[in-house]
Structure formats: structure tokens, C-alpha cells
Amino acid sequence: MDYGQSSKAVPVGSAHSKYRDIRLNSGRRTVAIPGPSMMPEAVLAAFAEPMPDIYAGEIVEVSDSVRERMSMLAQTQSQGFILTGNGHSAWQMATSNTLAKHDTVLVLESGLFPRVWGKYTSVTENLDVQYLAERDRAAVDLEVLRERLTADKGMKIRAVLMAQVDTASSVRNDVAGVRRILDETGHDALLMVDCVASLATERFEMDNWGVDIALASCQKGLMVPPGLAFVWASDKALQAYERADQRVGYFDWQMRLDTSSMYNYYAGTPPIAHLRAMKVALDLIEAEGAMAAVWQRHEVLAGAVRECVSVWSEGGDVEFNIIDEAHRSNCVTTVLTGSIDPVELRRRCDDNAGLVLGMGLEGTPGFRIAHMGYLNPPTLLGVLGTTEAALLSMGAELPNSGVAAAASFLAPFLSDS
Ligand SMILES: *Cc1c(COP(=O)(O)O)cnc(C)c1O
Q1: Which residue, judged by its Cα, is nearest atom 6 of ligand 1?
Q2: Is residue 224 a contact partner of residue 199, using CB atoms and an 8 Å limit?
Q3: Residue whose CB lies within 8 A of the most ligand 1 atoms, among 95, 170, 201, 217, for a mutation test
């Protein structure tokens, strides 16, 4: 019997047409969007537990165990804040506690997210938001940044805002490089880094890299349903609090700095179920071997995705959004689709195969494959294989199988030696 199948499109011939009305989506639906990510069952189970006393016992222990490990997450000794909110709430906590009305901030564009953060903060804090070069297919250009900071003789720029990974373009920026340019130009602006997509997916060392504010939320690399946000503030950021004149009650650091009172730290009732879920997620991260192991797993799995998309690209119908391979992120990959309609591609994946791919966002049409959080080869290869099948179903020219290339890439990592 010959099982030698090529990866060419299945001919829609008579044998196939008898299955015309069939759909293959009745197994477990796989969601490969860049947040919320796929979540461990043990994390989800935490949401089914009954509520405890909120001032003593279990929840105090859970809260302490999460708070203690905040420093591990961002590799920092600086003050961490946990709030009930999403990424936007962390944006607002960062800027409202450190900047004054009409301050100038410089947003380093590298896709949609820093741009939206800039727009958001211009409204919430009446800031004068300036942008460094609109870029959707490349990382922040450090030499252009150097020129911009050098030209700012009066140091009007109070803060530099950037995303480590922009989830729309799927670029990874060089955070340590931005710090270096600030130092070399002698500029004293605060460096604020959005790690919403990159926390627990990409190497991030807040203290070693001289980051003043790092922020994130829990629904991406941290594998917890949306609802918790995190902000870490260096001493310099905490000092900037003194001149911030637009602090907003719920986000204000003052009450939250009272770490002796759990009630004050959370500015009210702690997000109990989320904290329990977060504790489970942190336990899983530690069991894996802590941050270094998690970063490496993401790097390897992302390598398989890049291998696959490279092979797909040989046919000319799809291509990487991020041109320089050194700046392709380890948590999400944006794929441009040329003449293949990405809306129809995503519809086929979802309706006919039970796979939800990320959609292209403003500035980067195409689709996105998330590879963040609770992820291993069977899930990832399923995502890539299903996407390949959908591309073939749309007549994409794929001379070779990207999935086969991804499997070959992963093979050495399945060996024990
Ligand atoms: C998802 C995301 C956000 C927005 O987070 P919300 O929780 O939707 O507010 C911000 N920045 C980046 C880089 C993201 O990936």
C-alpha cells in the first residue's frame, strides 16, 4: 500500500465530493490568537473554587506567593503593582503616576500597539505625544532614536514609550539597545516598556536593562484569563511620582504602596480567583525551570514557526511581515498573504477545522499565528498543519510543506542525548 502523500492540494474530484458537506471542526477548538492565549486546565480550574475570607488564611498566602514572584517575572528588585485590569489599565497606571500635564513623551513606533498607547495617553493625561518614525515591518531604528534624543537639547522628552514585542507587526525590539542610546546621549527620560505580549515569552531583564517602568497583563504569556495587570516601577519612576499632577484614584500608587495591607495594595477587594489562577501559572513556570526555561521553549517553538513560514514563502503567496529575521518575535508571527484573502483563510480555519488564527491588524494585513503561553509541539504542529491545509484549500502555491520543515526543526529537541 502506498501511503506516500505529497502536500499538494487535495484534488476536489469525485471521491472527495461525496464529503462535500462535511466539516472537520468538532474536536477541541484551538485558539491561536495573540491573547488571550491557550490556558492550562489547572489555571482555569482555579476559577471554580468558592470564595474565601478575604482578610486571612488562604488568600493571604496566595497573594503573598504571587507578589513574591513578581520580581522573578520581570527580573527586577523594583516595586511591583498588581491591579484588576487589562493592558490598558497598566498603560494608564504607568503614565498617570509619573508624568505631568503637557509633558512631552516619545513613542517608538513599531506597529499598532505603541501607537495606540500614545493616542490613549494623549487623551488620559493630556500629554504632548510625539512619534518616532512610523514602522510596521521593522524594529525601532536606534540611530534615528539617537538623532531625535540628541536634538532634544532642553530634555523636553520626559518619557520614552515602547513595546518589547508589538503584537500587530510581530516585531521584537531591542530594549537594552534603547537604554544604551539614552545613556550615550545623556538623556534622562524615563524608559517605559510594554511587555504585555512579551512577558514570560521573551527574555526580559528589567534591572540589567535599566528599564524604569515595565508593564504587562496576564492573558498572554502568563496563561491566565484577562483581568490582571502588572506594573513595575524603578526608584527613578517612583521619584517621578512627586511631580505627577494627574494621578487617578484607582491607579494612584500611594495607597497601593502600603504593602502591609492587602486591602490597600489591591485598592480594595483582591481579585481572588485571578490571584489563585496566577499562583497556579507561576507554579507551572517554576516547575518548568523558571524564566530561562520558558524563554527557551518559546524560542524553540518560534523557530519551528519561522521554519514553516519560510518554506511557505518559497511559493511567493505568503511572506513574513517582519523583514529582518533577527527581529521576529518568539510569541507571535504576522504573515502577509498577497493575493490570498486572509479573511476567507481565517474563516475556513475556524468554520471548517476548529482553528482560530489571529487577524491582521491596521498596518499589517494578513493573519497572525500566536505561539505564546501554554504551548507544546502537538498543539503548535496542529496549528501549522491546519493553516497549511487551509492555504492549500485556497490555492496557495506551496511547493514544499512548511509543517514538514517545522517537524524537522523540532526533531533534535525530542532527542534525549
Ligand atoms: C494585547 C496588548 C495590549 C493590550 O492589552 P489589553 O489587555 O487588551 O488592554 C497592549 N500592548 C501589547 C503589546 C499587547 O500585545
Answers
A1: 87
A2: no
A3: 217
Strands 228-233 and 213-217: antiparallel
Rounded to the nearest whole angstrom, what is the distance from the C-alpha of residue 7 to the centroid of ligand 1? 36
Which distant-in-sequence residues (6+ apart) come within 8 Å of 28 by Cβ?
A: 354
pTM of the model: 0.95
CA distance 65 to 194: 24
The ligand 1 atom at the shortest distance from the C-alpha of residue 163 is 13
3-class secondary structure, 360: strand
**pLDDT tens column, 70-121:** 999 999 999 999 999 999 999 999 999 999 999 999 999 999 999 999 999 9
Interior CA angle at 288 toward 284 and 292, to 5°? 115
Q: Phi/psi class of residue 150: alpha, beta or left (left: φ > 0; alpha: ψ in -120 to 50)? A: alpha
Which segments within 153-270 are labelled E, that is strand? 157-163, 165-166, 171-172, 190-194, 213-217, 228-233
Question: Rounded to an integer, what distance in angstroms lies between the CA atom of residue 149 and that of residue 153?
Answer: 8
Average pLDDT for 190-216: 98
Average pLDDT over the chain reads: 94
Cβ(364)–Cβ(135) under 8 Å?
A: no
How many residues does the structure list for the chain? 417
DSSP label at residue 64: H
- CA–centroid distance, residue 62 to ligand 1 (Å): 26
Closest by CA position to 190, among listed 128, 152, 235: 235
Q: Classify each residue of 295-316 as buried b or exposed e, where b means 16 or more C-beta atoms within 10 Å of its C-beta.
A: bebbebbbbbbbbbbbbbbeee
Q: Which candidate, 204, 208, 181, 182, places its Cα nearest to that of 193?
A: 204
The 10 Å Cβ neighbour count of residue 180 is 15
The per-residue pLDDT for range 137-166, each reduced to its tens digit, is 999 999 999 999 999 999 999 999 999 999
Ligand 1 atom 3 nearest Cα: 87
DSSP assignment letter at 85 = S
Q: Does residue 32 contact residue 366 with C-beta atoms inside 8 Å? A: no
Contact residues of ligand 1, CB 6 A cut-off: 35, 86-88, 113, 163, 166-167, 194, 196-197, 217, 226
Distance 408 CA to ligand 1 centre (A): 33
